[in-house]
Amino acid sequence: MKMAGLFSVILFVVATVPSCGKTVAVANVEDSVILYQPTYDYEYVPDASYDLVADRVACIQSDIPLTYNERVKSFIDYFTVRDREYTRMVIRRKDIYFPIFEKYLKKHNLPQDLKYLAIVESGLKPEARSRVGAVGLWQFMPSTGRMFGLNRDWYIDERQDPEKSTEAACKYLKQLYRMFGDWELALAAYNTGPGNVRKAIRRSGYKKSFWDIYRYLPRETRSYVPQFVAIAYTLSYIDEHNLREEIPEYLVEADTLMVSQFASLKVLAEQLNVCEEDLQRLNPELRRAAVPETAKNYPLRIPADLADFIAANTSSLLDSAGSETIKKQFIAKAQKSSGSTYGRTKTTYRVRRGDVLGKIAERHGVRLSDVRRWNNIRGSRIYAGQRLTLYVKSSNRAVASAARTPVSAGKVHLVQPGDSLWEISRKYQGLTVAKIKQLNNLRTNSIKPGQKLIIGR
Which residues have a catalytic role annotated? Predict the structure, then answer.
């Protein structure tokens, strides 16, 4: 018997065979087994019962426990039914980042399935930023990032570097596993911190499994491990849920150019006739799309197919990308941008009783909106004792210093009972009342005992 064509109608029998829940359709035609290939339907959403998914989960070989229950099933339904576009998006991106994850997981002798954690954390977006300030594929907070060698300044945030952040995540996960000796608890600690996991263990009566301490964990963490299991399942059964993506995303093959000067990626992209976005995707750690002026042999990733051209024209390319005109334009724009810390010095101000956020911003010569952004404050509510991070210009550093440091002889005057601006000005040569008011942003002559006044540079 001959087949009339790919779309011939044939009699077939659906049978579940010992394939870990994979259903195949077969037809007996003259004692031969023929696989039935239906027309592909992108929108088709296969149904998967609780028991079928349980069978499939049991067949996943993993060094990490993949506990299956109703909570996990609800997240599997989310990724395979309710938000299929999100799942397809991460499937498209996985071929960019999974090879990096697998390389470092192997280097640190860690389970390969930990690569799925980055999907839970960031959706495989190197630039991902949470509302509390966690950044990158592995969502490191600034303090945790510094603990594992991820540097951060105005220009560069290594939490967004796929290679460096992945190595840091491997080190952190290895440390957490040593603490708890259990991968589910280590994952929970990655999300909420080891202190909160220990607290949950104590409150549970010193039980030692994730599901035993489940109800004592923060709400977000109770969802975290089930999401990990759901993602591990979903990416193990892409075809069974009709989620196959035919056109994956990819990065252009890269080479490295060592740069020791300021260089604008926008201008460099124009010189190379490449898409600026592609150049930025190769260098996601460059927060401002520029190599800083202080760089020493910075390894800038460039398209590999242009490496020979760049090598032959490095000087002229960098001269254009780092010209004084381009640099000045960049700096001017940087200084005006909302929340910018460019050219500013970081300082900490401790809120005193009676302080108002707007007045604090005014005294330090910064915008109120910037103070809110730097400290994740939505309104203007502050409390005595709170520590505010401020970035002040060099001309305002003395004001910030006076607000947080002891009296420095010859520079700051500590107001005593009975002092007035006139009497203070008489104590220091060349000092006037107007100068004191200017140095301290005073609008009136009113001062009070204990106040620190700048009286010179």
Answer: 121
